[in-house]
Amino acid sequence: MPQSHYRICPLCEACCGLEVRSEGKQVLSIRGAEQDVFSRGFICPKGVSLKDLHEDPDRLRAPLIKRDGVFVEASWDEAFAEIERRLLPLIAAHGGDAVATVFGNPSAHKISLLSYIPRLVKAIGTRNIFSASTLDQMPKQLSAGLMFGHWLSIPVPDIERCDYLLMLGANPMVSNGSLWTVPDYRGKSKAMRERGGRIVVIDPRRTETAAQADEHLAIRPGGDVFLLLGLVHTLFDEGLVRLGRLAEWTNGVEAVQQAVAAYPPERTAAGCGIDAATQRRLARELAAAPRACVYGRLGTCTQRFGSLNSWLVDVLNVLTGHLDAAGGAMFPKAAAFAANTLGKPGSGKGVATGRRASRVSGAPEVFGELPITCLAEEIETADGPDGVQVRALIAIAANPVLSAPNGPRLARALEGLDFMLSLDIYLNETSRHADVILPGLSPLEDLHFDMAFPQFSFRNHARFSGPVFERPAGTPEEWETILRLAALVEGRGRHVDIAALDDAAIAADVQKFAGEQAGAVLAALGEQRGPERLIDLALRSGPYGDRFGLKPEGLSLTKIKAADGGIDLGPLQPRIPEMLRTPTGRIELAPPLLLGDLPQVAAALDAPPVEGMLLIGRRDMRSGNSWMHNLPVLAKGPERCTLLVHPADAARLGLSDGGRARLATTTGAGLVRVELSETLMPGVVSLPHGWGHDLPGARLRQAAERPGLNMNALLDDGARDPLSGNAVLSGVAVQIAPA
Ligand SMILES: Nc1nc2c(c(=O)[nH]1)N[C@H]1C(S)=C(S)[C@@H](COP(=O)(O)OP(=O)(O)OC[C@H]3O[C@@H](n4cnc5c(=O)[nH]c(N)nc54)[C@H](O)[C@@H]3O)O[C@H]1N2
Ligand SMILES: Nc1nc2c(c(=O)[nH]1)N[C@H]1C(S)=C(S)[C@@H](COP(=O)(O)OP(=O)(O)OC[C@H]3O[C@@H](n4cnc5c(=O)[nH]c(N)nc54)[C@H](O)[C@@H]3O)O[C@H]1N2
Ligand code: SF4
Ligand SMILES: [Mo]
Hints:
- With 739 residues, the chain is an alpha/beta fold.
- InterPro entries: Asp_de-COase-like_dom_sf (IPR009010), MoPterin_dinucl-bd_dom (IPR006657), Mopterin_OxRdtase (IPR006656), Mopterin_OxRdtase_4Fe-4S_dom (IPR006963), Prok_molybdopt-oxidoreductase (IPR050123).
- This is Molybdopterin-dependent oxidoreductase.
- It comes from Roseateles violae.
C-alpha cells in the first residue's frame, strides 16, 4: 500500500515541506506538500533528489576505518574503539586544543548535529573551532550582533508587504534564499511586482534574479562598500534621514553621519562602477518608498569589506525608517531556540568578539570561532609559546577541501594529522583523509525540525516532520554518535548509556530554566528523548508555548505533530525594543569595531584598480555546494562547471564558446570549459564552487564522471575580512588564456 509522508527538506534554507510517497522501502515520488502552511507546495529539483540521495549506492551506511591506507567497513563498536585508541592519547599528551573541529553547512540544517555539537566541543575542551560560517555569513552575524545584541538577530525582507526591494549579492531565484527563508521567491517577487512593487538588483552578473527584477545594476566586484557608503552619505546630504519610531531606540546616528561624510557618491562611483546620479537616485527611491527594504547576502559577505557591507545594509534600513516596519526589514519571532526571545526582553549582554586570537596568524575569534582559512596553518605549524599544534581533526558534515580557499594546501595539511575523524555520509574529497568515518542517516530516516531558519523566515511558523523510513538496525542517530564521542573523550569509555547521559543533560538544562518547577517540567516532557525532547522543551517554554499548562492554547511538539503541514504563526510583527539584546537596550548604529575599518575603505578607494580579469562565483539550481553532484537527477543535463565569459572579453582573450581556458591565480591554476554569456559585466568571469571531483580516494562515482574544476584551488586562503574572519571568495584577480 503506498503511503504518504510529510517531510521538511533539509537541503537548503527555504525549508520546503515535501510530500514523500513510499511503498515498503521504496520512494515512489516526491513533490511539494500542498498542506504546508509555510511553503505551500513549492519544491525545487533538489527536493526531488532526496530519492536519489536515499538510494545512492555510494552513500555510506557503515563506519569505515582506514587500515594500511585502505578504508574497510567496520562495526560501530570497532570504529569507536579505534577512535578511543587513537584520539585519547593525543588529548592526554597535548590537551584539547590539539584537536580541531570543523562543522559544515548541513550541520545548520540538522537538529541532531546543531544541538549536540556544543557538547562534543565542550568535552574536548578545544578552542580550535572552525566552520563554514567563515566562508559565508559571519560578517552579517558580526554586524547584527554588534547592532542588535545577538548574532542571529538578522532582519529579513517582509516581501509580502514590501514595495521596494534593493538586493545586493544575492540570487534567490537559484539559491532559494539565504539568511532569508523564503520558499518560492519567484512567486513572491512576481506578486510583489504585480502589486506595483519594484525590485532593484546589484550584482556583477545579470543573474536569474536580476533578469526578472525591474532594474539590474552591474557593480564592480568588491565595490559594494563604496556604493553603500555613497547611499548613506546621500541620505544625510539630501536630508532624507527619517528614523521614525526607531529614533527613540537608536544610538550613534551622528557618528554615522560623520563617518560617511568623506564618501559622497561623486567619490565612490569610481570604486563601485555605479555613477553618482544613479547612487543618488537609489537613495531617494529607498527613502521615498513607504515600505522598502535593503537586503544583502553572500556576494556582499565574501569580500574584504564584508562586515562593513553587512552593517551598511542595515544602516540604510534604519535611517530610512524601514527597519522593523511592515514591508521592510523585520525580525522574525521563532517558536523555539531563538536567543532574541529568551531572557529579559529589551536588553542583554550584547556580543563579544576578539577575546583571543588564532595562534599562527593572530586572527581574532568571532563568536568562539576562528576563520576556517586558518585551519591549514594551525595544522602545519609546530607547537610554540602561543599554544599547541593541531594534531587531530573532527570534521562534521564538512568538505573544506572543496569548499574552502586553497583546498589543495588544506588537503596536504590533513595528510599530516596524527588522527582525523569524519562524520559524513560520503567518502569524499575531505573524508578520504580521515582515519575513521562515521556515517549519518539518509534524510528520509531522520526527523526534522529547523532550529536556525525560523529565525530568518519571511513569515512565522512552527513545523516538524518525523522520519519517513525506519533507520537500519544498529545505526545510531547522529546525536547519539556525538554524545558517545563526547563521553569517550571525557574518559567514560565507549559503552556508556546514551539515554542516561541525555537524561542528565536535559535535567541540567531544565533546572536552569525552571528552577523549583524542574521536576514538574521533566515529568511533562515524559518519555521523549534526544532532539524531540529538546524541541518540546524549547517550544513549550518559547514565545508561543503552552508554558507547561499555564497557557493551554499554546504550542507543544504534540500540537505541531498533530497539525498536518505545520502551524502558521502569522506575518512578521514589529519587535523593537523587545528583541534587542544590546547592553544599552538600543540599536547601536555606529559600533566602534566597524567604524575602525573605514580608513581602510578610503585607502582601497584611492588604490589603483586591479589589473586583469576578476573572478566571481555562482550557484546552480541543480547543485548544493560541493556534495550533491553524485545524484543522477541533478547531475544530468548540460555541463554546469563552466567559466562564464562576456563575448567581448572572450574575443580579446582568444576564447571561444565550448572551448577550454586555463585559469591561473597566485594560488593555483586549472582548466575549465568556457561558456559565453552577455550576462557578465565585462572584465568579470564567473565560476561555480564545489567542483573538482577528480581527487583520488573519494567514492563518488557519478560525480567523478564530470568532475569540474575546484574554484577554491584558485583562491588565496590568506584573503579575509579581518573583522569577521570571513574568506574572500569573490573579485579575485585571475589570468585567463585559451588552453
Ligand atoms: N569559492 C566559493 N567557495 C564557497 C562558496 C562560494 O560561494 N564560493 N560558498 C561557501 C558556502 S556559503 C558554504 S555554506 C560552504 C559549504 O562548505 P561545507 O559545509 O564544507 O561544504 P558542503 O559542500 O556543504 O559539504 C557538506 C558535507 O556534509 C556532508 N553531509 C551531507 N549531509 C550530511 C548529513 O546528514 N550528515 C553528515 N554527517 N554529513 C552530511 C556531505 O557529504 C559533505 O561532505 O562552501 C563555501 N565555499
Ligand atoms: N541551488 C543552490 N542553492 C543553494 C546553494 C547551492 O549551492 N545551490 N547553496 C546554499 C548556500 S550554502 C548559501 S550560503 C546560499 C547563498 O545564496 P545567495 O546569498 O543568494 O548567494 P548566491 O546565489 O551565491 O548569489 C551571490 C551573488 O553575489 C554576486 N556577487 C559576486 N560578487 C559580488 C560583489 O562583489 N558584489 C555584489 N553585489 N554581488 C556579487 C554573484 O554574482 C551572485 O549572483 O545558497 C544556498 N542555496
Ligand atoms: S528550495 Fe531548498 S528546501 Fe525547497 S525543495 Fe529545494 S532544496 Fe529543498
Ligand atoms: Mo552557505
